[in-house]
Amino acid sequence: MNDVYVMLTMDCEAAKIDVSAHGREISGSGPAEYADSETSIRGYVESARALGYPVTLFVHPEVAVAHAALLQELKGGGTCLGLHLHPYKFAGDRYDRDLGAYSAEDQRSILAEAVDVWGEALGFRPIYFRAGYFSANDSTVSALLALGFEGGSLSNPGRILPDHASVWAGAPAYPHRAHEAFRLIEGDTDFIEVPVAVAYGRPVEQGHAGERGFEWPYIPHTYDHSRVIEDILNRFVEEAPGFGTIVTDTHNDQDYADPNHASSQNLKSIIATIEAVCAARNLVVHGVTLDRMCHLVRAA
Ligand SMILES: [Zn+2]
Fold first, then answer.
1. Which residues have beta carbons under 5 A from ligand 1 (an ion)?
2. Gap from CA of 252 to ligand 1 centroid (Å)
3. CA distances from 202 to 171, 223, 228, 231, 297 (A)
4. Which of the four, 98, 157, 213, 231, has the lowest number of CB atoms within 10 Å?
5. How far is the CA of 234 from the centre of ligand 1 (A)?
6. How is the chain split into domains, by residue range?
7. CATH number of 3-299: 3.20.20.370, 3.20.20.70, 3.50.50.60, 3.40.50.1370?
8. What pLDDT digit, counting tens, does each position of 203-237 carry?
């Protein structure tokens, strides 16, 4: 193996003015207003581009409506757009839990509604997905396949967070075809899963979402990101996967337009560490979007 892929993602949350008190209680992430959201998203994409990397945005339906023009513009510049969903932020009266707490039928129904709103706003249907809190159960992949989804970044391997229906202990570490019946093994479906990269050498009792699991490149977190990246890359060298992919995440409530903001600094230091470690180990770094990674895995 001498290729390392870097997939920079952002979960774009509805602004708090659009979220019920119950929704805000379950998930505090997200900007106060859409003006803040636009600054954050544009700043992130432009900062990444300046560093030489494309971005994948998982967009909550209200954000697709609020930022249709911005998102179309970014898509034209090579940004990959997918759907992001917290049921209680989208339809709080009927659905008050995280996605993985619902039956197959309920998941299909709420995802279909979200696809309609998102698709009408942007003029095409989403085919990539990530749920809030990385929440999913064993019906999620089949629900997504039934709605025409082709890939996602659903999993955070090792995460144990049952309060948000997000348990990924033992999940595969690398991009793979998802299994239609069991989320923790590889399968043969046409749905490509690209997991977040986690540092198995750096376990945590309480991560940023309150989870047990492992440190990972969640950009706003105060982890020692250089150590996290080194741990992940050491594993890639040892295990030589076909698609060693460093998947990062962040939210549209971080001011990436401000180069001195802690998250802007973390983004720069994560990229600098990836490039330095890869250079020292003769690894070639490729920035990828989710659609590109799905294509690579499907073609392999
Ligand atoms: Zn979210």
1. 11, 132
2. 10
3. 17, 10, 7, 8, 28
4. 231
5. 29
6. 3-299
7. 3.20.20.370
8. 999 988 899 999 999 999 999 999 999 999 999 99
